[in-house]
Design a protein that fits this description.
The protein is an alpha/beta fold and about 375 residues long. The protein has two domains: about 5-125 and about 325-345, Rossmann fold (3-Layer(aba) Sandwich), CATH 3.40.50.720; about 125-325 and about 355-370, Dihydrodipicolinate Reductase, domain 2. It is about 30% helix and about 25% strand. It contains eleven helices and 15 strands. The protein has a nine-stranded mixed beta sheet with strand order 14-13-12-11-7-10-9-8-15, with helices on one face. The protein has a six-stranded parallel beta sheet with strand order 3-2-1-4-5-6. The radius of gyration is 20 Å and the shape is globular.
């Protein structure tokens, strides 16, 4: 198969996690970019010597591109994914897949009609430890998964944010930006369909108009459940509970002083403040703390693999080195070579969004929310 030429649409914070991965994947080539901001385009072209378009439609129409990695704001994912697919480009789309289930359906249909793959980007199911926990559950070695606890405390509300990133009416805000990760983790490991959600959310930072914490119980087909806990106010980082290792496999400073209390910023302020590139660390990534309880044992992560607790004691399983954000490129490439669908695909992304929207609805209406089959 010829080299897969991948373009990036949206050169903000997420793209900084993605761009360093290209050089590590054989068979993939960074090809171009698109952004509305002239300074971001100029920086990309200077750094990579590649074209950067101000109009994403031009990028999608370019003949020397095979796939578009969409890193634009949530409310643009649907429009941009359909645009890319309609030009015959494969799509990697940042989570959450979209802002409504109807948008997800249209994206899935566009990918199908145009014979291209639709892969959810930045999903933690692509992290080696999460995939390995899902494999153990699937193997049946510990019996069925009965309960998954997954918890994340971070500083999401303390990072530079635009007002539109906090706006739940635009399909943004802390819950829609961060809960997809924990839902993906729980659903992939459980390997079953979520059927019902009961949740509470809180909004306790008067300068940041978004829910900033949440507790959700998600029930799955067969009766098992996941207990999801999220808190983004920044006073505590749950990497203190995961061997001091964070979501990039990086070492985190324990007891770090919270950054100054934020307010939404202008675009000029946000992109100036968010200019540093985050480096991937050597350890397996931890997106919070996840404990998987099965009928005959428990699984959790260690810095280099998994810890499996059974009647025979605790066994540590080593895992292959972390892939970081090269995982999406490898998954797309493998799927094309093996002539199969990608994972996580559009249907999985839609399922996760359905749980997210149910969390918001359950909290708003104070009741259980059933999910469609
Ligand atoms: N920030 C993260 O660490 C992170 C991690 C994983 C996934 N994501 C996801 O990535 C997406 C983007 O988040 P972000 O944090 O990078 O936001 P951001 O605001 O930092 O970047 C978004 C970029 O998209 C550009 N943009 C806006 N409209 C555009 C258009 N019509 N055409 C081309 N470019 C356009 C903006 O100028 C900006 O550079 C979101 O869906 C988010 O959920 C973010």
């Amino acid at each position: 198969m010829p080299e897969l030429r991948v373009a990036i649409a949206g050169l903000g914070a997420a793209s900084k996690l993605v761009l360093p991965s290209f050089s590590s994947v054989e068979g993939v080539k960074l090809a171009a970019a698109s952004d509305l901001r002239a300074e971001a385009r100029a920086k990309f072209t200077t750094t990579y010597g590649l074209p950067a378009y101000d109009d994403i439609a031009q990028l999608c129409a370019a003949p020397d591109i095979d796939a578009v990695w969409i890193e634009t704001p949530n409310h643009l994912h649907c429009e941009h994914a359909i645009l890319a697919a309609s030009h015959g480009k494969h799509v990697i789309c940042a989570k959450p897949l979209a802002t409504t289930l109807d948008e997800c359906d249209r994206m899935i249909a566009a990918a199908k009609e145009n014979g291209v793959r639709l892969l959810v980007g930045h999903s933690k199911v692509l992290d080696t430890p999460v995939a390995a926990m899902a494999d153990i559950v699937k193997s049946g070695r510990l019996g069925r998964a009965i309960q998954i606890d997954t918890l994340l405390y971070n500083d999401w509300l303390r990072r530079p944010r635009l007002a539109e990133e906090l706006d739940e009416n635009l399909g943004a805000g802390f819950i829609l930006r961060q809960a997809p990760h924990l839902i993906d983790i729980a659903s992939a490991i459980m390997g079953a369909r979520p059927t019902q959600v009961r949740a509470l959310t809180g909004s306790w930072d008067d300068k940041m108009p978004t829910a900033g914490n949440c507790a959700a119980l998600v029930q799955y087909e067969g009766g098992a459940f996941a207990n999801i806990s999220l808190n983004g106010y920044g006073y505590f980082d749950s990497s203190e509970l995961t061997f001091g290792i964070g979501s990039m496999g990086d070492a985190r400073a324990a007891g770090a002083k919270p950054k100054s209390r934020g307010t939404p910023l202008s675009a000029a302020e946000k992109y100036a403040a968010a200019s540093e590139t985050r480096e991937r660390g050597p350890a397996q990534p931890f997106f919070g703390l996840t404990i998987v309880s099965c009928e005959r044992g428990v699984i959790r992560q260690s810095p280099s693999g998994l810890l499996v607790y059974t009647d025979d004691g605790c066994e540590e399983i080593s895992l292959p080195p972390p892939k970081g954000r090269a995982a999406e490129l490898i998954e797309l490439l493998d799927a094309l070579r093996e002539n199969r669908d990608v994972f996580p695909n559009g249907a999985f992304g839609k399922q996760t969004l359905a749980v997210c929207l149910a969390i918001l609805r359950s909290a708003r209406e104070g009741r259980d929310v059933a999910l469609q089959g």
